[in-house]
Each structure stands twice: as C-alpha cells, then as structure tokens.
Design goal:
nine-stranded mixed sheet, globular
C-alpha cells in the first residue's frame, strides 16, 4: 500500500512538472575552406544519452528535478567545412522524429553553436528552429544558448524566446552559459511569466576573428565585463553580445547584441548601450598575442630560452573551421636547416592527417623507418601533400583516430588518421611527450585553449595559410552586408537601431 502510494505521488509530481525537450545541431563552418562536413563527422546523442552533455543535468541535480526532461537529439561536430545538404536534412529529419515521440512539450532547450553553414541554405539555425516548431508548435517556450562566435539572424531571434551566449573566449564558461539558459527557462515556467515582454536585437556591422576578440585582453575583456551587470538589472532576463563568425559568407554574418526582459525602457537602453560600446571599441581590437610571418615566429622561438615556445599555425585552425590538413607550414619546417639534425631544437608539430602514414607506421612498428605522403587530401590550394620520412617514435591506437609520432631530425610530427585539434596538455602527454620540456610546439590553433595556454613559456601567432586565413580583407566575401568594419575602415557611423522582435504567439511590444 505504501509503495503504491509513493509511486502514485511520484507519478503525479512528474505529470505536474513542465515537459521540456532538448534538441540542437552545433557546428562552426568555414565557407572559405574546400572541406565538407558529412554525417560521419557528427557525434550524435539521443534520448538519455543527451544528459551526458550537461553536468548540471546529472540525475541528482536540482535542475534535473525541476522538470520532466525529454531529450530528443543533439548533434555536435568539430568545426569544419560546409555541411552537405544531404547531411543537414538527415540530421533534421532524425531530430524531428525523436521530438515526435514525446509530444506535447511546454518548452524546448535549443542548444546550437550558431555558425553552421549548409550547402544551398542560408541561416540553417533559423531554418532548424522553424522546422522544429512545425512539430512542437509555437506555444512551447524556447530557450537558446549559443557560442559568442555564432550568428543571430532576425529569424532566429524571432523564434527564440530566451537567448544567451558565452561571455568568455576561450569558452571557459560554456557549461555555465548553458546552465544559465536552462535556469532562465525554468524560472519563466515556474513563475508563470512565460515569454519575455521584450526582445531587443541590434545589428553591429563588425566582423572580426576570435583571435582579435578574446576576453583575456582589452577591449573585449571590458566589453564582456558589462554583460553580467546588464543582465542583472531589474526588468532584464539576459543580455548577450555575439562577435559573429568571420569565415562564412552569409548576410547574417555580423555582430549582434540582444537583451531580453519585461521592462521595455531598460531592455532598449541596455541593448543600445552595449551595441554603442562595441562599436566605439572597434579600432582597439588587436590580436591576443604577437603575430608575424612563420619565419619571423620561428626566429623568435629559436632565440628564446622560454620553454615551450608556442606558435599558433592560425590559417588552418580546425577549431575555427579550417580543414586541418594544409601542409604549407609543415613543408617549410622540413626545409629549415635548424631542425635537420637530431640534436637540433626539439619541435613538436600538432598535427597533420596522414592515414597512409598511420597505416605504414602500424605495420612497421616502433623504431622503424617509414615514408609516406601526408596532408592536403582536402585543402591542397597552398601546398600539395608532403612526403614525410622518419622514425616511428610513438603509436597511440584508437578505434576512432589513431595517432603516430614521426621523428625526422629534431622535428616530432604528430600524424593522425583524421584531423584532430590539440587542446590539452594531456593530448601531448598521451603521445609520450613531456611538452613543457620541448623547445617549440607548433599547433594548428588560433588563440590557445586554457590547458596549453597555461603551459606556454612564450607564444606567438603565425600568419599562415588556410581556410580561416586571418587576412580578412583578402577573403572573397560576396554576400555579407556592406559596409562592414574592418573591411570598410572608413564607413559612416551606423544607426545601431534597436529592433524589437516578437515571438510567434506573443503580443506585440
């Protein structure tokens, strides 16, 4: 009897809790890279698997207990080239099928990056939320969390009720931001307040790379420091500044400020102030670290006694959408006489895809001499595949991406089955390195993620070639809205108009 009663109480409680779905597709895509992203590149979670993506929704967490969570599907991929239309349509169809299984919903947590590009389709995230709403209807409250390098079209702004983005770059607050999006959603459901009365959207005609807008340094540090106090004001739910994504060519690619809340005057004035402060700071954005040509960076590193001297191979940064297999830098390293002797300065190069080399290294074994072409299987615009020969120094087998270290002279080249970003000190330790003792580490990245940043002795960013080239003025933009700073340095003052956008089913503001 007691067990039956407790079961009944538990079931009644579940029925009273809001029914919240989770869905999203998250990727950042460069349209200036020849790479294409297919379904095999995505990590897909469905149903209860989705919970593993969010530590704040652990089974015993307070937020988990506040709702009847019904995760549908979440797909995420390492940044890369444009998503094929076939892949996008497949992911959308699978997402919608999962959503249909648990209708109806009181709300949706919509987890996206915001810089997805799809062949033949503008504004995929805006398209995705509309397709989702065709299934779940317009009454469900939608809360969205995005990367600050995402793009917020008016269509996306209109179809999202609560919206926020990260406030740090590098994105050390990613999980904190997602938690905020969920907490805001629950608060609006619990209080019965529902949709915010006002959503203010401001286009800021600035398009800058993340390497110039890191919140570690000014002016982004101070600009983003204003966001939390702005969001804490009475009558404001949240405030956000999107830098936007520089390496895609769509009309929605530009900076945006959004503020949501119930007090129209405060929401409007806050959005206007944040947008104006962003515009006023435009000339102060500089690279987060010293930049120079590859040769200049190497000369500085060779003269330095600080270990490891980190050099960012920026142009082919796979975490920003580069193909990750451009051989332009590696070819030049192999020509440098300083690294031809085994007694030369120890340089770790991370990394280059070379499945044939991996295959040969596995067959030959540790200590064997091997030779194979690596790289430029996807992006050969700047340099063809490089013939790499050397000693198999380390093998790390994996079902998903085997890595080998090939030593030639004093160069230690990490060769992978598939492209792989190296974000953590442990990524190097897992390959037998003691990275803090290396003279130079060259890594395909822009600004250094926290782990490798913390182990740097010194650091420079090399202006190398690739699909995320830092020289924006030479990129073949055709469709972004002009004028745009810094492409049009002498452009007139923009209006920075505050646009109030209304969610479907909401009353006009």
């Amino acid at each position: 009897m007691v067990v039956a009663l407790l079961t009944t109480i538990s079931c009644n409680r579940q029925e009273q809790l809001p029914r919240i779905a989770i869905a999203g597709i998250a990727i950042e895509c460069s349209t200036f890279s020849p790479a294409q992203t297919t379904e095999d590149d995505f990590s897909i979670s469905k149903g209860a698997e989705v919970f593993t993506r969010y530590d704040f929704l652990a089974e015993d967490s307070l937020l988990r207990q506040k709702a009847h969570w019904l995760p549908a599907m979440y797909a995420r991929a390492t940044p890369g080239g444009i998503v094929t239309r076939e892949t996008y349509e497949s992911l959308v169809a699978r997402t919608l099928e999962e959503l249909k299984k648990n209708l109806p919903y009181d709300a949706l947590y919509f987890d996206i990056h915001g810089a997805m590009s799809v062949t033949g389709l503008d504004d995929p995230e805006g398209d995705l939320i509309l397709r989702i709403k065709e299934v779940i209807g317009n009454k469900a409250l939608v809360s969205t969390c995005m990367d600050l390098h995402g793009n917020v079209s008016l269509r996306l702004a209109e179809n999202t009720d609560l919206i926020t983005c990260y406030r740090m770059a590098p994105h050390e607050d990613a999980m904190e931001s997602k938690r905020r999006a969920v907490s805001n959603l629950l608060e609006r459901l619990e209080t019965g307040k529902g949709r915010p009365e006002y959503k203010a959207w401001v286009k800021v005609p600035i398009l800058l790379p993340g390497e110039k807008t890191s919140t570690r340094v000014e002016p982004a540090r101070s600009l983003y420091a204003e966001v939390a106090p702005a969001a804490a004001q009475q009558g404001v739910i949240d405030a956000a500044i999107w830098i936007g994504y520089a390496w895609a060519d769509e009309p929605r690619n530009h900076a945006v400020v959004m503020v949501t809340g119930d007090d129209k005057q405060t929401v409007e004035s806050t959005a206007r102030k944040l947008a104006q402060n962003f515009w006023d700071a435009r000339h102060r954005f500089e690279f987060i670290a010293p930049t120079a040509s590859l040769d200049e960076c190497l000369e500085k590193a060779l003269q330095s006694d600080k270990k490891p001297f980190m050099i960012s191979d920026m142009g082919d940064n796979p975490t920003a959408g580069g193909a990750g297999d451009v051989t332009w830098t590696l070819a030049r390293l192999l020509e440098r006489k300083e690294f031809r002797s085994p007694r030369g300065p120890k340089l770790i190069y991370a990394s280059i895809p070379g499945p044939k080399m991996v295959e040969k290294a596995l067959a030959a074994g540790l200590g064997a001499q091997v030779e194979a072409y690596v790289g430029a299987m996807v992006d050969d615009r700047y340099q063809p595949p490089v013939l790499l020969g050397g000693t198999v120094e380390f093998i790390r087998e994996s079902d998903t991406n085997t890595e080998v270290v090939i030593k030639t002279g004093s160069l230690h080249v990490i060769v992978t089955q598939k492209r792989k970003p190296y974000h953590y000190e442990s990524d190097f330790e897992n390959l037998g390195f003691q990275p803090r003792e290396a003279d130079i580490i060259m890594i395909k990245v822009g600004y250094l993620p926290e782990s490798v940043y913390n182990m740097r002795g010194d650091w420079m960013m090399a202006l190398t070639r690739g699909g995320v080239d830092q020289n924006l003025s030479e990129l073949p933009y055709r469709r972004i809205q002009r004028p745009m700073f810094p492409l049009d340095k002498d452009m007139p003052e923009p209006p920075l108009d505050v646009v109030f956008v209304n969610s479907p089913e909401s009353k006009p503001g």
